[in-house]
Specification:
Elements lengths: L1 E2 L5 E2 L14 H21 L1 E5 L14 E5 L10 E4 L8 E6 L16 E5 L13 E8 L4 E5 L2 E4 L2 E2 L8 E8 L5 H7 L5 E3 L5 E6 H8 L4 E6 L24 E5 L6 E3 L5 H10 L5 E3 L4 E3 L2 E2 L2 E3 L4 E5 L9 H4 L2 E2 L3 E10 L22
Antiparallel strand pairs: 1-2, 3-4, 4-24, 5-6, 7-8, 7-24, 8-22, 9-10, 9-16, 10-11, 12-14, 12-15, 13-14, 17-21, 18-19, 19-20, 22-23
């Protein structure tokens, strides 16, 4: 206020605009940049989401589900390809700057039967962290002797596996009333399969559903599909002399860090790929000897840990039976929780699977 000539107090007029803060575009840009950097750090070393696209894990996780990948447990694998565009897939990158493999210390170790997200080891034309991502279940640990006998897992001479109700196998269904089969399959949430030239249904489902279908009056016969005959030449290590199949595989020793494996002309095919491409050694094989980095050897001590993974859908799979060992530097993190679930095989509101929201993955 101010005093006028007549001794009256009057209010001093001020501009209505005075004292107002102007919006600075630079402040907005800085805030967005900081938020983006924080998001990148969280994605790189804490956790990231992953959308399931394959039926390879049966009902453990289903296509359309968004799951959370925990990176702190095993320790985050730091990015190796620095020049890349985040959040736009794995195809936008440059290999001008590549860093060696390094993993932060974790709060836990990799355990048998855990489900992990990893980069496919066999896509050697790409950097490891830019290869296609996949999920599967850890079965063989470093140092294990693993064998598959009639579809049953044998580790260190003991049979072991996850509960049977989690496993999916292939079955052939012969129907007495084909018109009703669609409804029967819907009844048991069987949505993966086809019909062969004999008009028989080839499906993938659980053992419990196999028992259910046996009791359906419109099912004349159901039995396990024998797929070993036409998969024998496709399985790891890709040599017919092994006579391995998806259902009869091994035995083999899973390599581990600081563990030695005897190398012979009979087993070198099993370890050849990882010695050359992940141990980064120069391997030479002749009819009479095996040489690594110019030195003849009868055994090799591995620098890194390797794992053997199997899909829960055992016969519609893409796992270690096809491409071999999973190197530790390909592992991204542990699949921990279903964030939301949409079943693409269903319609309308029935797609939303509320009962699976925030379900622990195990």
């Amino acid at each position: 206020m101010q005093l006028t000539g007549k001794g009256k107090l009057t209010k001093k007029k001020t501009s209505g605009r005075k004292g107002k803060k102007k919006n600075n575009p630079g402040n907005w840009f800085l805030a967005i940049l900081i938020a983006f950097i924080i998001l990148l750090i969280i994605k790189a070393i804490v956790a990231e989401p992953y959308i399931v696209r394959s039926t390879n894990m049966g009902q453990t996780v289903i296509p359309g589900e968004l799951i959370l990948i925990n990176k702190t447990g095993y320790g985050a694998r730091l990015p190796g390809t620095l020049l890349s565009i985040p959040f736009f897939g794995l195809n936008y990158y440059s290999t001008l700057i590549e860093l060696p493999y390094f993993r932060l210390a974790g709060s836990d170790k990799i355990n048998r039967f855990e489900i992990v997200l990893f980069n496919l080891p066999y896509q050697k034309e790409k950097p490891v962290d830019k290869r296609t991502q996949k999920i599967s279940r850890i079965i063989g640990m470093p140092g294990d002797t693993l064998e598959i006998v009639n579809s049953k897992i044998k580790i260190n001479d003991l049979y072991t596996d996850i509960p049977e109700d989690k496993l999916y196998f292939g079955y052939t269904v012969i129907s007495a009333n084909p018109e009703k089969m669609s409804g029967i399959f819907d009844k048991y949430d069987i949505n993966e399969g086809s019909m062969n030239e004999k008009e028989q249904y080839i499906i993938s489902t659980s053992i419990s559903n196999y028992e259910n279908l046996k009791n359906e009056k419109d099912v004349r016969k159901i039995y396990r599909t024998d797929i070993s005959a036409y998969n024998e030449n496709l399985v790891f290590p890709g040599e017919k002399s092994y006579h391995w199949s998806m259902n009869s595989f091994g035995p083999l020793v899973v390599p581990g860090k600081n563990r030695s494996v005897f190398l012979t002309k009979n087993n070198i095919a099993v370890y050849k790929d990882i010695i050359e491409n992940f141990e980064n050694c120069n391997l030479k094989i002749t009819s009479s000897s095996i040489s690594i980095n110019g030195k003849k050897v009868s055994e090799y001590t591995f620098k890194y840990n390797y794992y053997f993974v199997l899909d829960d859908n055992r016969e519609n799979a893409n796992d270690s039976r096809y491409w071999g060992f999973l190197p530790e530097n390909c592992i991204i993190g542990r699949c921990s929780t279903v964030l939301y679930s949409i079943d693409k095989s269903k319609k309308d509101i029935h797609k939303i699977q509320l009962s699976r929201f925030f379900k622990r993955i195990e």
